[in-house]
Design a protein that fits this description.
The structure is a single chain. By secondary structure, the chain is of the alpha/beta class. It is built from 17 helices and 18 strands. The strands form 3 sheets. An 8-stranded mixed beta barrel has the order 11-12-13-14-15-16-17-18, surrounded by 5 helices. Strands 2-1-5-4-3 form a 5-stranded antiparallel β-sheet, sandwiched between helices. It starts with 9 loop residues before the first helix and ends in a 24-residue tail after the last strand.
């Protein structure tokens, strides 16, 4: 007898079809922001809770912490493309069971996502790797949900000549052992060569135990005269709001990657996040003066058409100047400190002004300036930008706005108004850090951008990783559906450039095409560039 579909309401029938074809253990429906509105299946067996107890919770909470960045990317793809093919994740159950997730977007009335969870061997299409943006996003998520179970650990390898860089096999063994020793749900990764960070999971880890485990690996491998320095940074920060704590944490990760434990101590992190902000507050006056007096220069890196290497435009990158009362010369620290003490808008405005001046003096060369999500949603910043554009004829031929830190956009309506202002003046808009979470996919449509920039971490791994190649190809297809072009960062070799072309990426940025330079090229032939010192 042929199968007859039950006489169900449309949405219930769609759920039934998805559930039946996927042979799922868990069936979940969410809104477009990922909040669970319907749950059925073996939730009690997997999580010890009835399905109804998950209503209103983020669906990402069903997924093990290490897989959440990739799962957020998958949700973004599902939201925009309408379908997520079966892909492997690990559940946030006691055994971190390997499961597959598949889904459809329903458009009957209010748009919904229907997800099924069941075994099926296929990887997710992408998402930030644990090192770098992935670990940062996991830590920030933990802060938003009430804080992790303990402090974040930082371990640094030092030899007689300074930082010790382990070989590939030793490095992998160290990361595997750190993840094993840190316990259930913990995530350990290498932030920079020889520098590791560990985010606690369901229970705090013992930092001396982790330190001894790394030292034992080095000893077994015959590595002598290398010490393992460790530091814990507590995330408890009474009196700090979530935004302040998140920015302080970003600073800690960036400072450690650049300067190790010495940089953490210098920034005040020995006293946790609150200790950093106490130290940062003392420097806020000097930082405000540095911004007002423009104690920085801009370096300009070309973004080219990969096919013929013709420069399309240039990205302006801030380079702070050393000052006696402002001991911050690294761009990441300069920007992160501005964020932490509430000076993001002031810094953004100083950068926009400097870029407009440089572009105006360069004979029409188009330059991209970075604009944070905080400034994008600021009504005052928008009015200042409107005045600038109205008083500066021809800016449409000189400027590109590159939006960073979209995770901090809470007033989406205000951000849309800024985008509309830019488009009225024919200023192209680029969405940075594309694919670093579900929010970027929503903004791709809401903001009507001209370019999306894929982080170089995917480019660096694409030659060896089918997963990363699939992610980039999916980004290209998705961008094309909204009329945007893709820019790939950190292209360093001809092999990477050729692969990006093969995947459909039109524009590239990286040392293969040119390093940042302190003078902006003009349209006049024969003008030499000054290398960034």
């Amino acid at each position: 007898m042929p199968f007859q579909q039950p006489n169900l309401p449309t949405r219930s029938r769609d759920r039934f079809v998805v559930f039946a074809f996927a042979s799922a253990e868990l069936l979940v429906e969410t809104d477009l922001r990922g909040r669970i509105s319907f749950a059925e299946g073996a939730f009690r067996a997997r999580f010890g809770r009835v399905p109804q107890s998950f209503l209103g919770q983020p669906v990402i909470s069903l997924v093990a912490p290490a897989d959440r960045p990739a799962f957020a990317t998958a949700l973004g793809l599902l939201t925009e493309q309408g379908r997520l093919k079966p892909a492997v994740i690990k559940l946030a159950d006691d055994a971190t069971t390997a499961f597959s997730v598949a889904g459809l977007r329903l458009s009957d009335g209010d748009a919904k996502l229907v997800l099924t969870f069941a075994p099926l061997p296929r990887e997710l299409p992408g998402g930030p790797l644990p090192g770098g943006p992935g670990l940062a996003s996991l830590a920030e998520e933990a802060l938003r949900s009430g804080g992790p179970s303990g402090p974040v650990g930082f371990l640094e390898l030092k030899g007689p000549a300074g930082r010790y860089v382990p070989g590939g096999e030793v490095n992998r063994e160290i990361q595997q052992e750190l993840n094993r020793q840190a316990g259930e749900g913990a995530v350990a990764t290498e932030l920079a060569a020889g520098r590791y960070s560990v985010l606690p999971g369901q229970a705090p880890f013992d930092l001396p135990t982790l330190t001894s485990a790394v030292a034992e690996i080095l000893k077994d491998r015959g590595v002598e005269d290398v010490s393992v320095g460790a530091m814990a940074v507590g995330l408890e920060a009474e009196g700090l709001n979530q935004v302040q704590a998140t920015r302080a944490l970003r600073f800690a990760l960036a400072a450690f990657a650049r300067g190790g434990n010495d940089a953490l101590e210098k920034a005040g992190f020995a006293g946790g996040l609150a200790g950093f902000l106490d130290s940062a507050s003392e420097r806020a006056t000097s930082l405000r003066r540095s911004i007002a007096e423009r104690r920085f220069r801009m370096a300009f890196q070309p973004i080219v058409s990969i096919a013929d290497r013709t420069p399309h435009h240039y990205e302006a990158l801030i380079r702070p100047l050393q000052a006696d009362d402002m001991a911050l010369s690294h761009p990441g620290e300069f920007v992160a400190l501005a964020e932490a003490v509430g000076l993001t808008e002031e810094l953004d405005w100083a950068v926009v002004s400097a870029v407009c001046e440089a572009a105006g003096a360069a004979g029409g060369t188009r330059v991209a300036c970075n604009l944070s999500g905080l400034s994008l949603q600021s009504p005052k910043f928008r009015e200042d930008m409107k005045t600038l554009l109205e008083n500066t004829p021809g800016m449409a031929e000189r400027l590109v706005v590159e939006i960073t830190e979209t995770a901090e956009i809470e007033q989406e309506d205000e951000a849309v108004r800024m985008i509309e202002l830019l488009r009225e003046h024919k200023i192209p808009v680029c969405l940075d850090d594309f694919g670093a979470g579900a929010a970027a996919f929503r903004y791709l449509r809401a903001f009507k951008v001209d370019y999306v920039k894929v982080d170089g971490i995917y480019v660096a791994n694409a030659l060896q990783s089918e997963r990363d190649r699939g992610f980039i190809a999916a980004m290209v297809d998705l961008a094309r559906t909204v009329g945007a072009q893709v820019v790939a960062e950190r292209i360093e070799t001809e092999e990477e450039a050729a692969l990006m072309l093969e995947l459909g990426v039109r524009y590239g940025q990286g040392y293969l095409f040119g390093k940042p330079k302190m003078e902006l090229a003009t349209r006049k032939a024969g003008q030499a560039w000054q290398e960034e010192k």
